[in-house]
Specification:
alpha/beta, 60s Ribosomal Protein L30, Chain: A, Aminopeptidase, 3 domains, five-stranded mixed sheet, about 30% helix, about 25% strand
C-alpha cells in the first residue's frame, strides 16, 4: 500500500485541527449498513438477525421489513443475553432465574457468565443462579429457567452467535459475530429449539466487523520503518449507533466504545508482533495510536499518519492566578485540567524539578525535604485514570503542613496521554478512551528501562529523596471493558474487565515481605474506617463474584489486597492504588479523589511508624 499525501484541512478528515499542518492518508472506506441492506434486499417471509447495532436501529429495520410483509426479529450480537432481558423476556414479577451459561473449548470457563454482566445488578429483584453448562463446540446458547411470583415457570433459550477464527495475533479466538436465520416462528424465536437455529442459521459478515477487520489489516500490511513506526496514527470512525445506559452504576451498552478498545489494543498487538517482542511485553514503542469513534449518520473509517504538532500542544502554564488550583482540587466535577495541576505545584511552593514529554510538554515534580522518612508520590501514569492527579495534590497540600514532611510528588507523569484524554472526552466523556493510557511513544511509562523523556521525573525523585516507599496512584474502568471482535475479554487485562471496588497492590523486593505486610495492615486499618469505600467494595465485589466468580484477593482487615514480589523496581516498596475511576464525574469523581487522598495520607503516616528493623531486607 502506498499512502497518498493530503492536506490536513481536507473536509473529509473529521478532526483536521488536531493533527497539525499535514497528514498522510493510509486507508479510507465507507460501508453500507448491514440491516438497511437486508431490509431492502431480503426476499423471504421471516427473518431473524443478530448484528452489532443499537436497539433503535434494529427496531427500525424490523419496521422496514414489516412494510414489505416480512416478519423479522433483529437482535444484538453484542451481549445477547442482557439484550434479551431488556427487549424480549418478560421481567415483570420475575423472581428467580437459573442461567445455564454455555462453555466452549476455545474460551475461558467464565467467558459467557462474564458476558452476562451486569444482568444481576440490572434486575435486583430477581434471584439469579449461574450454572456452567456442558462444554461444546456448537453455537453457544444460554438456557434459562424462569420463575414468576404467581408460580408460573418458563424455559427458554438465548442464542449467542460466535465464530472461531484466527485473530490479529495469529491465535484462535471465539468472538461474537453477525448471524441470520430465514424462516421459523419469529414471534416465538426465543423459544425455538437449538437444533432449528443451528440447521438453518448462518454467519453474517456485518459492516461493523468488516470495518474493524479492513482497518486493522490495512495498517498491519502498510510499509513501516523502524520503531517507533509513526508519531501519531489517527483512526477516524463514524458509527451510526447510540450508547444505551443501563440501570446500574456507570454501565452502558456502547458499541462505539467497544470498537475504540478493539481497534486500539488490536493495533498494539499488531505492532507487538511486528517488533518481534513476545505477547504481553510492555516495552513496545509504536507511536501514539488514536482511534476516534464518533456518532455519525453513515458508517465509515479513515486512517491517517500524522506528526505531533508542538505548536498546538502547549505545556501547562505556571502563570495562572495563585488560587486557581483551589476550584480544581475542591469543586471540580471531572478530570483535573493540566494547567490546574501546574498552578497547584506553584502554590505548594516546594522545590521543583522538570522533565520533557515526547511531544514537547513540560512535566514537573516537587520535593520537600524534612526529617521524616521520604516517600515518593506519583500520579497520572495512565492518563485516562483520572482521580489520581487530584487526589495526590489534595494529599500533598495536607502533607506540606506537617512538620518534618519529606516527600516528592509528580501529579501528572504522562502529559501527552493526558492531553489526548482531554481531547477524546470532549466527544464522549463516558468512554474509557484507553488510547490515552500510554505515552506519545505508545509505551507504558512504568516499563521504560531508561530515564528517557517523562521517565526522568521518577529517576530524579528517587535521587533527590532516597525514598524506600513509592505511592503509585492508579485507577481502572468504572464499567465493563470488552473487546467483542477478538474474544470479548481483553487479552492480558482479564482481571480488569468489570469493576471490583477499590483495592491495593503492594509490590516489594525480595526480603521486604515483612515490611510490606506490616505496611498493608496499617494502611488497611485506616482505610477500613472509610464508610464510602466499604460500601463501594461490598456492592461491586458482589456483582463481580456473581458474574466472574472468585475475585482472588487476599483480605487484610476486610480490605481487598494483592501482594507480589517484584525485582523490577529500584524502590523496595511500591504501594499501588486501584480505584474504578475511568469515566466517573461529579460526586463519583470526588469520592475517587478522596480515596486516593486518604490512601496517601494513611500510607505516609504508617511508613513513619514502620519498625526500623523491617527497613532492611531479611537475609533469609
Amino acid at each position: 500500500m502506498s499512502p497518498s499525501a493530503v492536506s490536513a484541512t481536507d473536509p473529509a478528515f473529521t478532526d483536521a485541527a488536531s493533527i497539525g499542518a499535514s497528514a498522510t492518508e493510509l486507508f479510507s472506506r465507507a460501508y453500507a449498513a448491514t440491516l438497511a441492506t437486508l431490509a431492502a434486499e431480503f426476499a423471504g417471509e421471516r427473518l431473524e438477525t443478530w448484528t452489532f447495532d443499537d436497539r433503535a436501529t434494529r427496531r427500525q429495520a424490523e419496521a422496514a421489513l414489516a412494510e414489505r410483509g416480512i416478519a423479522a426479529r433483529c437482535r444484538s450480537a453484542y451481549k445477547p443475553l442482557l439484550c434479551a432481558f431488556r427487549e424480549e423476556i418478560e421481567t415483570r414479577d420475575l423472581v428467580a432465574c437459573e442461567v445455564i451459561y454455555p462453555r466452549h473449548p476455545q474460551a475461558s470457563e467464565q467467558r459467557f457468565r462474564l458476558e452476562s454482566y451486569p444482568l444481576a445488578a440490572c434486575y435486583p429483584q430477581v434471584a439469579f443462579r449461574f450454572v456452567a453448562g456442558a462444554c461444546r463446540a456448537a453455537l453457544p446458547v444460554y438456557r434459562l429457567h424462569l420463575r414468576y411470583a404467581d408460580g408460573r415457570e418458563r424455559e427458554c433459550e438465548v442464542l449467542a452467535p460466535n465464530r472461531v477464527h484466527a485473530d490479529f495475533t495469529g491465535e484462535l479466538a471465539l468472538s461474537p459475530c453477525g448471524w441470520y436465520r430465514e424462516g421459523g416462528a419469529v414471534g416465538k424465536a426465543i423459544e425455538a429449539t437449538t437444533a432449528e437455529r443451528l440447521s438453518e442459521g448462518r454467519a453474517l459478515w456485518t459492516a461493523f466487523e468488516a470495518l474493524y477487520h479492513d482497518s486493522v489489516s490495512a495498517i498491519r500490511d502498510a510499509d513501516w520503518g523502524e520503531e517507533p513506526y509513526f508519531e501519531r496514527l489517527e483512526i477516524a470512525v463514524m458509527l451510526p449507533v447510540d450508547d444505551e445506559p443501563l440501570a446500574y452504576d456507570d454501565e452502558v451498552l456502547s458499541l462505539r466504545e467497544a470498537l475504540h478498545e478493539e481497534l486500539y489494543f488490536s493495533l498494539l498487538e499488531v505492532f507487538q508482533r511486528r517488533s518481534g517482542r513476545p505477547p504481553g511485553d510492555r516495552h513496545l514503542r509504536p507511536g501514539q495510536i488514536v482511534p476516534q469513534v464518533r456518532r455519525g449518520a453513515t458508517l465509515s473509517v479513515q486512517v491517517w499518519v500524522v506528526k505531533h504538532a508542538a505548536s498546538a500542544q502547549p505545556s501547562p502554564q505556571d502563570d495562572l492566578p495563585a488560587g486557581h488550583w483551589r476550584a480544581q482540587l475542591g469543586l471540580d466535577e471531572g478530570p483535573l485540567a493540566p494547567a490546574g495541576a501546574a498552578a497547584a505545584l506553584v502554590a505548594l511552593a516546594l522545590s521543583r524539578f522538570p522533565a520533557r514529554s515526547v511531544a514537547g510538554r513540560t512535566l514537573s515534580g516537587c520535593h520537600i525535604a524534612g526529617r521524616d522518612r521520604a516517600v515518593m508520590i506519583s500520579a497520572g501514569q495512565h492518563a485516562n485514570e483520572t482521580s489520581s492527579p487530584a487526589g495526590s495534590l489534595q494529599a500533598a497540600f495536607t502533607l506540606a503542613r506537617r512538620p518534618g514532611a519529606h516527600f516528592t510528588l509528580c501529579p501528572l507523569e504522562n502529559p501527552d496521554g493526558y492531553a489526548l484524554h482531554q481531547q477524546l472526552i470532549a466527544d464522549n466523556p463516558r468512554h474509557m478512551h484507553h488510547a490515552a493510557r500510554y505515552t506519545a511513544l505508545g509505551d507504558d511509562l512504568e516499563y521504560r528501562a531508561s530515564a528517557l523523556f517523562e521517565s526522568a521525573i521518577r529517576t530524579q525523585a528517587e535521587r533527590l529523596s532516597g525514598a524506600q516507599l513509592h505511592l503509585n496512584l492508579h485507577g481502572y474502568p468504572a464499567h465493563e471493558w470488552t473487546r467483542p471482535l477478538s474474544g470479548y475479554v481483553p487479552r492480558g487485562f482479564e482481571m480488569w474487565t468489570i469493576p471490583k471496588g477499590f483495592f491495593l497492590i503492594l509490590r516489594y523486593r525480595p526480603g521486604w515481605e515483612a515490611a510490606a505486610r506490616w505496611l498493608l495492615d496499617a494502611v488497611t486499618r485506616a482505610l477500613a474506617e472509610e464508610v464510602a469505600l466499604e460500601a463501594l467494595n461490598r456492592r461491586q465485589l458482589a456483582q463481580f463474584n456473581a458474574h466472574a466468580g472468585d475475585d482472588g484477593f487476599e483480605r487484610i482487615n476486610g480490605f481487598p489486597c494483592w501482594l507480589a514480589v517484584d525485582e523490577r523496581h529500584r524502590v523496595p516498596l511500591t504501594l499501588i492504588t486501584e480505584y474504578p475511576d475511568e469515566t466517573v464525574y461529579a460526586d463519583a469523581f470526588q469520592a475517587a479523589a478522596a480515596a486516593q487522598r486518604a490512601t496517601v495520607l494513611a500510607a505516609y503516616e504508617a511508613f513513619q511508624r514502620l519498625p526500623a528493623g523491617l527497613l532492611a531486607p531479611d537475609p533469609t
